[in-house]
Amino acid sequence: MHNTILFCLFFFLPAAQPITSKLDEGWWAYKDVVQGSFVPVPSFWGLVNSAWNLCAIGKRQSPIDIETSHMIFDPYLTPLRLNTGGHKMGGTMYNTGKHVSLRPDKAHLVNISGGPLGYSYRLEEVRIHFGSEDSQGSEHLLNGQGFPGEVQLIHYNQDLYANYSEAAKSPHGIAVVSIFIKLSENSNAFLNRMLNRDTITRINYKHDAFLLMGLNIADLYPDTTRYITYEGSITIPPCYETSTWILINKPVYVTQMQMHSLRLLSQNEPYKIFLSMSDNTRPTQPLLQRCIRTNINFSKQGRDCPNNRALRPQYRGNMKGTRRGSSGVVSA
Ligand SMILES: *[C@@H]1O[C@H](CO)[C@@H](O)[C@H](O)[C@H]1NC(C)=O
Ligand SMILES: *[C@@H]1O[C@H](CO)[C@@H](O)[C@H](O)[C@H]1NC(C)=O
Ligand SMILES: *[C@@H]1O[C@H](CO)[C@@H](O)[C@H](O)[C@H]1NC(C)=O
Predict the structure, then answer these.
(1) Closest-approaching ligand to the CA atom of 301
(2) Do both 77 and 33 map to the same domain?
(3) Nearest residue by C-alpha to atom 9 in ligand 2
(4) Same structural domain for residues 104 and 12?
(5) Which of 84, 100, 119, 189 is most buried by its number of CB atoms within 10 A?
C-alpha cells in the first residue's frame, strides 16, 4: 500500500527533480511550501525514505496528546536531578531553518539523571518550537489544547553511548525534558538571554549562529519537581523510538514581543523568500498501548495500566492571566 502512495507521490512530482539526491537527512518540512519544489511534510516523512519508515509505521511515536484522565500516578518516580557541576555554560544559538537551536559548548557539560531515567544523560541541544498563533506551537498537547510553544532539552545517554548520533538510534538513547511555553509580561531568565531583541535578531536567517556565554541551564527549569513521563520517539525524521519524554508540570514564560520576534525568523537564507519558521511542530501521534506516568499525586495511587482516573486540568493551554509560577500545568 505504501508503495502505491509512493508511486503516486513521485509520479506527480514536478519534472526534472533528481529524487535520489534529495534523500538526505534534511529533506523534510513541517508544512507545504507554496512556492518552490516538493519537500515532504509529516504525513510523508515515513514514505519518502526507507530509513525513516518508523515515522509512518512506528507504534511509540511522539509527540502525543496528554490526556490527563489516562495518567497513572507512580509513587516510585523520584525527582529529576540536574547536574551542572555548579558552572555556567556557553553555547551557540542557531537558526537551523527548522528550529531555534542552542548547542552547549563542550567545556561545561550538563547532565540529568534520576526520575524515570536509569542512566545519566548529557545535554546536546535546547530546541524551541512555536506557533504562528498563541493557541498553537507546542508539539505535545494537553487534553487537546496546544500552548504557544515548547522548549525541548534534548539529552543523550552518556553512560552507554559515545555521542548523540549513536544514542539516537539505540535503546534508552535519548531523554527529552519538555517545557511548555506560555505568554506573560515577564520572561524566563534563560529564555530572555536567547530571545531578547539584540540576540534573536542575530539569527534571522537559516545558518545564522550566535555565541552566548554565562548561561545557567537551571534558570530554564520551572520551580517544580512534578512531571509527566512516557516512552516515545524523536519528533523529526528518522523518528527513532528511543526517547524517554519528561514533561515538566509548569510552563515557562516569554513575552508577547519575544514570541513576535520568533515568528519573524525565516526558514530561508537572506537571499531567498521569507518563510516564517513558526508552526514547526509534528502533529500528535497515537498513544496506542503506552502508559503515561506522573509523580503528581492527584488521587489514590494506582499502578495498573491503563487506568481512567478522572483529573481536572488546572488551566487550559492558551488561557490568559495566569500568574507566573503560581500553578502547575496539571493540578494535584
Ligand atoms: C498521595 O496522596 C494521598 C492522598 O492525599 C496520600 O494518602 C498518599 O500518601 C500520597 N502518596 C504518596 C506516595 O505521596
Ligand atoms: C554529570 O555532570 C557533572 C557536572 O558537570 C559531572 O561532575 C559528572 O561527572 C557528570 N556525570 C557523568 C556520568 O558524566
Ligand atoms: C559517534 O560515535 C560512533 C561510535 O563511537 C562513531 O563511529 C561516530 O563517528 C561518532 N559520530 C560523531 C558525529 O562523532
Answers:
(1) 1
(2) no
(3) 85
(4) no
(5) 100
Residue 46 falls inside a structural domain: yes
Q: Which domain holds residue 9?
A: 2-57
Annotated catalytic, 161? yes
The response to whether residue 297 sits with its C-beta less than 6 Å from ligand 1 reads yes
How many Å apart are CA 69 and CA 81, to the nearest integer? 27
Give the residue from 32, 57, 82 where a domain finishes: 57
Q: Report if residue 253 sits inside a domain.
A: yes
Pair 6, 48: CB distance under 8 Å: yes
Closest CA to 66 of 327, 325, 316, 319: 316
Q: Which of 210, 208, 202, 205 is nearest to 273 (CA)?
A: 205
Q: Each residue of 86-122: pLDDT tens digit?
A: 999 999 999 999 999 999 999 889 999 999 999 999 9
Going by alpha carbons, the residue nearest to atom 3 of ligand 1 is 300
| Residue 236 within any structural domain of the chain | yes
Nearest to 305 by CA among 254, 239, 229, 227: 229
CB within 8 A of 8, min separation 6: which ones?
none
- For atom 10 of ligand 3, which residue has the closest CA? 163
How far apart CA 112 and CA 82 sit, in angstroms, is 5
From the list 30, 121, 161, 221, the catalytic residue is 161
Task: Encode pLDDT of 208-246 as tens digits.
Answer: 999 999 999 999 999 999 999 999 999 999 999 999 999
DSSP, residue by residue, 163-194: SHHHHHTSTT-EEEEEEEEEE-SS--HHHHHH
The answer to whether residues 168 and 256 belong to one domain is yes
Separation of CA 164 and ligand 3 centre (Å): 8
